[in-house]
C-alpha cells in the first residue's frame, strides 16, 4: 500500500494527543500565526494561497485565494469571515473529526484567513447537532483568547480579531453560504439570489468570505511549509490532500486523508479494505449523497475534481458511500429523495414541488405500485429541477436520481413489472 504524508489528520494520530492548546503548541501549532501576523502583508498571504492551488473542500471546489481576492478593499464596510461548520451532507463526517480532535488547527486557519482579508470579527457556524464539537470549540476559543491568539493586538501584532461560535438549528440548507448568512442574521435559512455575491455583499450587507472547515485547516501548513510544497501534492489542477469519508459496505470505514491524485480503486481497495464480507461492488457515491453514482467500470477514475466531473459525477463533500451487490437502487433513490424533500427550504417551485414528486414516485415504485410511465416521469422531473433554482439543492436532489436510472434502469423496470423488489429474499 502506498504511503502518503498526512497533513490535517497527522496530529490526532499522535499517541495521547487531545487537541488542547499546550498539545497543539508542542507540535508547532500557531507557528504560522507568529510568522505571518504583522510581518507578511495580507495581500502576500492571499498570493501565497493562490500559488498553493488550494480549492474549497465544501463542495464547489472554488480556488480559495481567488475567492479572497474578490473582497473589495475600499468599501468602507467591515469584512467578515464565516467558517462553515454546518457539515450535514449524508455520508460526510470529516469536518466533525477536525473540530473535535484538533480544534486549534481550525482556529489557526481562521486567524490566518481573517488576517488575509482584513476581517476583525469572524463566526464559526456549527451544526446544532454537533454538541460535543461545539463544547470542544468553546474550550479552544477560551484557551486561544487567554494566551493572546485572539482579541486585541494578537501576539502584539497590532491586529485585532474576535471569533464567535454560533450554533445552527440543524437545517441542511444552511450549509449553502447565503442561507448560512441569512441564518446568522437571525432569519430563516433560505438562499439569496446571486449576484451580488457574499464577497461583495454578505453578512449584514458587508463583504464576507465563507470557507469550509477542511479548507481553513490547510492554511497553517501552507503558510508554514510554503505554497510550492503544497502545490506539488495532488494533480495539475487539484492540489493537496483531501479527507475522504468512506462508509457503507466497506471493510474499514472511516476518514482517509490522501493526495487528490488517488484513484477510486486505490481508496477503496488499498486503504478502505474493499467491499465488506467479500461481496462484489455494485455502486459508489463519490462525493456525498448529492453526487451522481459511479459503478465498477469507474474504479480507475481519479478522485480529483476534474476526473470525477469527466466521469459524470463530482467530488462534492468528499463523502464516499460504497454499495455492494444486492443493494436495491430503487430503495437508495427513495431514501435520497426523501432526505432532499425534507430539507428543501421550499423557496423555489422547481425544488419544492420537484423533490416532493421524486419522493412520491420513487416511494410508489418501491412499494410495488409503480407504473411503466413512472421512469420517464422521474427523468422529466429531474430535467425540470436541474439548473433552474436559486441554489443547487434542487440539482443535488435530481442528479443522483437521474444517475441511478442511467445505470440501473433494468432494476427500476423490474420493480414496476414484478410489483416488488426483485432483490428481496
Number of strand elements: 8
User: Are there runs of 5+ residues with pLDDT below 50, and where?
Assistant: none
Largest sheet: 4 strands, parallel
Strand content: 5-15%
H-E string: HHHHEHHEHEHEHHHEEHEHEHHHH
Morphology call:
globular
Give Rg in angstroms. 22 Å
Strand order of the largest sheet: 3-2-1-4
Question: How helical, in percent, are the residues?
Answer: 40-55%
Average pLDDT level: 95
Structural class: alpha/beta
Amino-to-carboxy terminus distance: 37 Å
The helix count comes to: 17
Describe the structure.
The chain is an alpha/beta fold. A 4-stranded parallel beta sheet has the order 3-2-1-4, with helices on both faces. A hairpin with a 5-residue loop joins strand 5 and strand 6. Helix 3 crosses helix 6, helix 5 packs across helix 6 and helix 15 runs antiparallel to helix 16. The relative contact order is 0.12. The mean pLDDT is 95.
Layout of secondary structure:
Layout: H1 21-26, H2 31-36, H3 42-52, H4 64-69, E1 80-85, H5 94-101, H6 103-117, E2 121-126, H7 131-146, E3 162-167, H8 177-184, E4 208-212, H9 213-217, H10 219-225, H11 227-231, E5 241-248, E6 254-259, H12 264-271, E7 281-285, H13 305-310, E8 319-324, H14 329-343, H15 349-366, H16 374-385, H17 393-418
Parallel strand pairs: 1-2, 1-4, 2-3, 5-8
Antiparallel strand pairs: 5-6, 7-8
Helix pairs in contact: 3-6, 5-6, 5-7, 14-15, 14-17, 15-16, 15-17, 16-17
